[in-house]
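Retro notes (design track)

What went well: tokenization of the new backbones is finally stable.
What didn't: we kept losing track of which sequence belonged to which structure.
Fix going forward: every design gets posted as structure first, then sequence, in one message. First example under the new rule, 328 residues:
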């Protein structure tokens, strides 16, 4: 065998996980999958999940789904795909700094938003009346991996995807899932703020003074400051978290973004149109299920659930073109 390379089988990689922090999640002690599988020759369970997520159709569709700005003019605004990649980078950075399992954090981060509807969070408002208890993208992400594109993912990855949103309870069962929770908020606040400046909705002086003082300029400086805040405080205890003071500043930042960006007139003008498109499409496909691909009609669910699954999976441009075609 050549001395130029080093063979790192699954067993070797699992053994290397012994050197992780005491709180880290080891792939060799995973709670497993819904259906047992033979271990892979080279990849750990979480590496295998990461690869399965990357190759799904739902992941590919993220490139044409809105993050915040609907049909923005310019090529540099964040999409749902670039947001996902940013979350993945931040989650891996947090996990690496804290001695946690980077592969688990990466798999959760890559899969966390595949369930998002077209037109960003506006889509959640549009779809919620059709679902008991409301429609949420995290639950839809899990549904994609369990039903619509069944990938038999590990318990830990599905749990992290289920609970990546701060509004979901209980929180993630693993510290790697907690890394993704923070990474998601860090990424969307930092880069949505930068996009808002780029779009002319805000100037840096508009941001609250405590946010500018603690986290710096929108974009990479904010990302770095928030990562340091999570890592430095987490090392003082046994949970992945910021200090109470930093959490207060992050909360102020989030409140400001909702008031000035997410609920701004700029978005409200577009919200009604987006909701109309989504609800019209659900109603049409509910009434005429044969319009849907068979892949959405063979899971034993009722026709309304099938229509919601189908429309939720659409990209922004496909939903817009389908609406124009079906609602002439």
């Amino acid at each position: 065998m050549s001395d130029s390379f080093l063979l790192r089988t699954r067993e070797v990689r699992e053994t290397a996980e012994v050197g992780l922090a005491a709180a880290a999640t080891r792939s060799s002690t995973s709670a497993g999958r819904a259906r047992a599988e033979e271990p892979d020759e080279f990849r750990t369970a979480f590496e295998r999940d990461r690869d399965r997520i990357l190759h799904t159709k739902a992941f590919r569709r993220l490139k044409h789904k809105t993050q915040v700005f609907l049909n923005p003019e310019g090529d540099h605004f964040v999409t749902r795909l670039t947001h996902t990649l940013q979350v993945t980078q931040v989650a891996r950075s947090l996990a690496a700094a804290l001695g946690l399992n980077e592969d688990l954090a990466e798999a959760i981060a890559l899969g966390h938003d595949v369930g998002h509807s077209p037109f960003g969070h506006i889509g959640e408002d549009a779809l919620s009346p059709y679902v008991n208890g409301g429609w949420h993208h995290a639950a839809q992400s899990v549904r994609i991996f369990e039903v619509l594109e069944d990938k038999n993912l590990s318990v830990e990855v599905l749990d992290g995807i289920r609970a990546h949103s701060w509004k979901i309870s209980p929180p993630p069962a693993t510290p790697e899932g907690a890394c993704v929770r923070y990474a998601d908020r860090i990424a969307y606040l930092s880069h949505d703020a930068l996009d808002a400046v780029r779009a002319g909705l805000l100037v840096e002086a508009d941001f609250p003074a405590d946010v500018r003082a603690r986290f710096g300029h929108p974009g990479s400086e904010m990302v770095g400051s928030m990562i340091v805040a999570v890592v430095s405080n987490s090392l003082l205890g046994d949970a992945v978290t910021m200090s109470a003071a930093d959490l207060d500043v992050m909360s102020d930042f989030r409140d400001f973004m909702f008031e000035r960006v997410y609920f701004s007139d700029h978005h409200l003008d577009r919200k009604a149109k987006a909701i109309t498109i989504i609800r019209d499409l659900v109603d049409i496909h509910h009434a005429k299920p044969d319009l849907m691909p068979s892949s959405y009609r063979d899971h034993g669910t009722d026709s309304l659930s099938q229509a919601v699954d189908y429309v939720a999976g659409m990209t922004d441009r496909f939903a817009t073109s389908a609406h124009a075609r079906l609602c002439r």
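Added context from the reviewer: Residues 166 and 286 are 32 Å apart (CA to CA).
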